[in-house]
TrEMBL record:
The keyword Lyase applies. This is 4-hydroxy-tetrahydrodipicolinate synthase. Pathway: Amino-acid biosynthesis; L-lysine biosynthesis via DAP pathway; (S)-tetrahydrodipicolinate from L-aspartate: step 3/4. It comes from the Eukaryota. It comes from Coffea canephora (Robusta coffee). PANTHER family: 4-HYDROXY-TETRAHYDRODIPICOLINATE SYNTHASE 1, CHLOROPLASTIC (PTHR12128:SF15), DIHYDRODIPICOLINATE SYNTHASE (PTHR12128).
Length: 366
């Protein structure tokens, strides 16, 4: 809407008296009408979705909704910082053998934030190619840039992932309406889990956004980290929820109707985490696992997990910076916890050991 101005009559004489050949002064005032901001012009995307319905093992949202145990899988590295696919394959196989039903590839635990998009999509495709017939592959293709989220999600589904994990725009936060538009841009592509973790994003995804997203048949559910009150708020209205907190997942599952958990601890003890999700209420087992879960999150995830898997001999002790291993005192504590819980419950076959500082390789360029 353009603003209409008119000349001030009081300055007419000044204008008329200006010397010949010089521009006359023009003064404008706004009309006394109430000014209203124009509505933002939202241009519908003219891009057709880059999707195919001729996909092997095509999965729908209903197939994802039934998953009880999903592991946020660790990404192992070679000494030069590239992916250690041999160790990765072994780790995924151990998840499958112990009854895990799905893996999040390139999530926070898998250090997607330290990957290029080429690495990210390659790892999703590799996982689908090797294990897609045995386990559901959920690619973390979310981003705080809607353009990047769209592009990565198109590529993820093109290489065969069964579902996408999407976070709300972080750091450069947006409005409630902006969140809805962000999720609306990716939901048409395929089954989607929305991930709410305000401790990392700095912004909660309120229920109004989830209810708006739930109008899409592609919303599989929510990975919720706010707490069990929020979990029950959704489950009571028919929305599928996975707890994003290992320390709360037992109660989420059995007291608040969560479908299951997206777990970090299941990287280490997948069989025990399956029992926790499938075998009914088990406060004794939950209490037994609590010291391990608390240890895992003494420092920001995935620092504890990376340290633990290295000490179990399942992955090489290689860290992409800025992550560093836990200090020696914590590494010794982990050794004792493995012995108390039972080495047979943990992944791998080597004896657990407390690694020295010099055993770890820290990689800043890769």
């Amino acid at each position: 809407m353009s603003t209409v101005y008119q000349q001030l009559p009081a300055l007419k004489s000044l204008r008329d008296s200006s010397p010949v050949g010089l521009p006359r002064p023009i003064v404008y005032k706004r009309r006394n009408a109430r000014w209203r901001s124009p509505e933002a012009a939202v241009i519908s995307s003219f891009h057709l979705p880059m999707r195919s319905f001729e996909v092997k093992n095509r999965t729908f949202a209903e197939d994802i909704k039934s998953l009880r145990l999903i592991t946020a899988i660790k990404t192992p590295y070679l000494p030069d910082g590239r992916f250690d696919l041999e160790a990765y394959d072994s780790l995924v196989n151990m998840q499958i053998e112990n009854g895990v039903e799905g893996v999040i590839v390139g999530g926070t635990t898998g250090e997607g934030q330290l990957m290029s998009w080429d690495e990210h999509i390659m790892l999703i495709g590799h996982t689908v190619n090797c294990f897609g017939g045995s386990i559901k592959v959920i690619g973390n293709t979310g981003s705080n840039s809607t353009r990047e989220a769209i592009h990565a999600t198109e590529q993820g589904f093109a290489v065969g992932m069964h579902a996408a994990l999407h976070i709300n725009p972080y750091y450069g936060k947006t409005s409630i309406e902006g969140m809805i538009s962000h999720f609306d841009s990716v939901l048409p592509m395929g089954p989607t889990i929305i991930y709410n973790v305000p401790s990392r994003t700095g912004q909660d995804i309120p229920p109004s956004v989830i209810f708006a997203a739930a109008e899409s048949p592609n919303l599989a559910g929510v990975k919720e980290c706010v707490g069990n009150d929020r979990v029950e708020h959704y489950t009571s209205k028919g929305i599928v929820v996975w707890s994003g907190n290992d320390d709360q997942c037992h109660d989420s599952r059995w007291d608040h109707d969560a479908t299951g958990v997206v777990s970090v601890a299941s990287n280490l003890v997948p069989g025990l985490m399956r029992e926790l999700m499938f075998a009914g209420k088990n406060p004794a087992l939950n209490s037994k696992l609590m010291p391990l879960i608390e240890w895992l999150f003494k420092e920001p995830n995935p620092i504890g997990l990376n340290t633990a898997l290295a000490q179990l001999g399942v992955v090489r002790p290689v860290f992409r910076l800025p992550y560093l291993p836990l200090p020696l005192s914590e590494r010794l504590e982990f050794v004792n916890m493995v012995k108390e819980i039972g080495r047979q419950h943990f992944v791998g076959e080597r004896d657990v050991q407390a690694l020295d500082d010099d055993d770890f390789i820290l990689v800043g360029r890769y």
